[in-house]
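Reopening closed ticket. The problem is back. First fold of the pair:
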Amino acid sequence: MFAVKITSYPVYWATLAFAGFCRMLPESGAASLGRLIGSCVWHFLPEHRKKRARLSLREYFGADEKETERILRASLERYGPMGVEGLRAPIIAKDVERYIGFSADAEAQKLFAGGKGGILVTLHSGNWELFGLGMAHYVSAPFATLVKRQQFDAWDKLARQLRTVRVIYPDETRKLYQSVREGYFVNFLMDQGIHDAKDAIPAEFLGHTTGWTPAPATIARFFGVPILPMFIHQKLGERHIIEIKGPIYVKKTDDKDADLEKATQAVVTVFEEHIRKYPEDWNWLYSKWRDVVPEQERTVSAN
């Protein structure tokens, strides 16, 4: 069922052993370990990657030098606690409400109860790996997430074991469409790089034109289902809160490209509002500003 290459076994067993160690620790010890790992991420990440993130913060977010360093450090150091929490998922699952809260727009609540499914869109912001646990606990509608395969088969196997929801890979188009037909709410992490920039939908983001995947708007338009922006944020010393925003609908006119662009822009505008509110939560290592091509090239590609 889960094939693991022989060369991946050491990685798999080492990760399992570390996960077991994390689960043995008391909550305070796990928190300290997460902070230690986060500090290591900050100090040992290659400088050229930090440099690119600093440029993004200064040029696109408008942060000064001091604020840039504060935001970037907080953004990178959160990966330590996030990783430890992910490995402690079985513990969190036993008492979800202690670790994860939930807030949803009233219309979103009705949609979850309606049984027709929909599209959820989010960013690599906060501890997105906890979405599955939170959604499975608070929402009766079935939940699935679209994820990239891990570098090692062993890591992929472990990730699937830790996630409590249906997992869909980018090359599983039939499974993706079937999930929406079955009433699933499928989650897309929209800030990942576009494989071919000519396929990207342009949208204004932090004052600049950026490229975004057309998949969420395309699928929502095809099935006539809503798009719901979703975020997760944690205040210092408090639990994580999953927040579901109000629905965005994709119009179905004779101009499909315009329909997709309007819906995608509406989604990206909500993303920007969240990032401006919680800049430390987002992964500034991503360079969304590269995922766009001139209008002429997009037209040629579309034709």
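Second fold of the pair, where the issue appears:
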Amino acid sequence: MTPAAFTASDATASATEPSKMLEVRNVRKHFGPVVALDGVSISVEAGKVAAIVGDNGAGKSTLVKILTGVHQPTSGEIAFDGQPVVMHDPDEARRVGVETLFQDLALVDDLTIWQNLFLGRELTWGGPLRLTRKRAMAEQAREMLSGLQINIPSIEARVRRLSGGQRKAVAISRAVGWNEPTAALGVKERTEVENLIERLRDQGRTFLLISHNFDQVMRLSNEIWIMRNGRVVGHRRTAETSGDELVALITGAKPAEIGRKPSD
């Protein structure tokens, strides 16, 4: 399955005019002679859930990798909170406030919950021989998990002992990006995770969700961007579209509405 992601931010939407948390402006990405992205432009309103849908090869994964600093665009611009940014690697993307969580979650089974939360970003103190601040990390981990309202055991529990939904909750706490957020979960766990997305959105978080699950996209998103062959071919408010229309735009049964070239 094509990797998918969403990103989140602490910014809240303006009460009068929707602000753009993320703007992708005419981004192109070439891999030698192969054009993976061809003038892609999307935006995500602060405090909303936007979704990107498209078939395999539509360019979704490439776009996610650009947004998370794995790839750099050949041309075009990315802006967060209206400010253009250049992200040369995932660390720079994290400093902007973007991370990605793929289906495997990137959790270490033999580490505790709090150790996984701080994996790769450990709190330290001291000089050349830095020591980890275990107590501070454990306390911050408790605070992170306290608002999730999901049945999480002690932060000292090993990740291998957690259920699928609990593992997902740990990964959510660590990341502001999310790929296929409910893949391989049961109905109860999937419902818990979707409820968590809605709670975080209600707290003012901003998400970009990429999923093959149209039912889930229709339940969670406020707006949907449709991609095909490296271009954005449509944009819809979720309340004003249907799964059938999305399929038609993805497959080309319905002509592209944006991103068309004169020859199309």
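Update: turned out to be a display glitch only; the data is intact. Residues 1-101+175-264 form a domain with the Rossmann fold fold (CATH 3.40.50.300). Helices lie at 60-67, 90-96, 113-117, 134-146, 164-174, 187-202, 214-220, 243-251. Please close again.
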